[in-house]
Amino acid sequence: MGTGDPFGMPVTHIMTAGMGGIRTAGDLVAWMQMTRRMKLADAKGYVAEKLGVDVMDLVDEDVMYPLRKELGIGTVTPEAGGPEGILAKCRVADLLDIEINSVNRFKAQMAK
Amino acid sequence: MPDTISTRMGDGERVKMSPEKIMDELRAGSENAAGMARIPVLTDDEIEQLYDIIAEPGRVVSVPHGHELIMTDDGIAECFVGTEADGGSGISISRQASVLSYERGLAADTGSIGHSDYSFKPVKAILDVELQAYHTISMLTTAPLFYGSQPNMGLYFQPDGPFPNPADMMPVGKIKEAQAAQEDAAEKLCADMVSIGKEFNAMGCEGFNFDTAGSTGDAELYATLQAARQLKQYAPDMAIIIGMASEFVLGMHGEIMFDEQRLAGLFPHDQVKLAESVGADIFGPAINVDTSKSFAWNLAKAVTMVKETVARAEIPVHPNVGMGVCGIPMLLEVPIDCVSRASKALTLIGKADGL
Which CATH architecture describes the domain B5-348? Predict the structure, then answer.
């Protein structure tokens, strides 16, 4: 993405082609691109397998909202006191079997 | 088929064109890209598919279910805080509030923060501020968070920096001196970027974005590639994006080599191989927009180059799609009809992994 007003740039791109971030499974697919250099199809396939869902389900709110709540990996409508932020990312790292730098740093400090 | 289709020029001006004219523009744009970069033109089927996207009657268009991709950004997560120069809304809220709104209100796949000047050199003076801001926000975000900045080697030349300015020397024939100044500046820039990157890694940074790389030419890209390679070896768990400044590398130095590859004049399908080789996890090509040409011409040019880049890449490719690049008209309030059509075309025909 790049420069432009919020409505014209991020809102339009996300509505047109975005996976939906933590609203669905966009963050999880992004993690696989970042940590394993996976191309889009491979990243989607990996995440779908880890979640036990079909690839098409990754952007289906009806599937992902309850699944994210069940797994405790954060949603766009967080429950007060529920998992979000670094706690959710700790679970994402375990779920996807990946190294997340912030999570590793956080856990190292917790261990002291 | 309608007699005319409402579309735009590269500067955003709304115009009407006949279907035949749009098809001609699409072919010409693709041929322009293919001729410059020495890559294949789009196929007839792809040109027709591109035409169909442009000619869709809806104000905005979208990809079919199952074709969604990943969104990364270069400071856009702070768009609610930013000012006019960045397309920002100028709202007096914190950077943290902007990023969390971006994550949860806009449902972005990733977020980012960066210095308001968005260059590495000024980051040095307030590094602790940036580290603390990133750390606090990263504890609250669930989606991946990048720290982004531009190499922007121009800040290392006089009067802003310590090195003689090549732009002053080249016009008077001091070519060797200008090259030496760029080499010296590149060495200092690389050292600064590695130093900053190491601090971010130690704090727990999830992703580091070298944005608009090569804006000062081939020596700047050289510094960026060197820095990315050193950082990736030192910090393998911190993802790296290398995003480009333009469709081909400006030869401001002209002779600088990286791993026996001359950098000047490289197009995105070659740039991505260098990014891969130094360990970048995501590559962002930037295809220039010609404001005097039509949206159709510019989009076909961008899709032609992006398609070839993705085909040759072994890492995810996220084309830069801000104003003035990859088909998006050069207008701060970017027209949503063009943005959604560029988004759809780069996804379906360009086969991008993200935007």
Answer: Alpha-Beta Barrel (3.20)
Amino acid at B105: G
Residue of B83, B98, B106, B325 to mutate when probing chain A, most A C-beta within 10 A: B106
Q: Which residues pair with B317 in a beta bridge?
A: B283
The domain limits of chain B are 5-348
pLDDT tens per residue, chain B (355 residues)?
778 999 999 999 999 999 999 999 999 999 999 999 999 999 999 999 999 999 999 999 999 999 999 999 998 999 999 988 888 999 999 999 999 999 999 999 999 999 999 999 999 999 999 999 999 999 999 999 999 999 999 999 999 999 999 999 999 999 999 999 999 999 999 999 999 999 999 999 999 999 999 999 999 999 999 999 999 999 999 999 999 999 999 999 999 999 999 999 999 999 999 999 999 999 999 999 999 999 999 999 999 999 999 999 999 999 999 999 999 999 999 999 999 999 999 999 999 999 9
Minimal-distance CA residue of chain B relative to A31: B144
Q: Which residue of A has its CA nearest to B334?
A: A8
Cα–Cα dist B327/B322, whole Å: 9
Q: In terms of Cα–Cα distance, which of A14, A23, A59 is closest to B336? A: A14
Take residue A51 and report the two structure tokens written for it.
Answer: 């979640």
ipTM over 0.90: yes
For chain A, give every domain's residue range.
Answer: 20-110
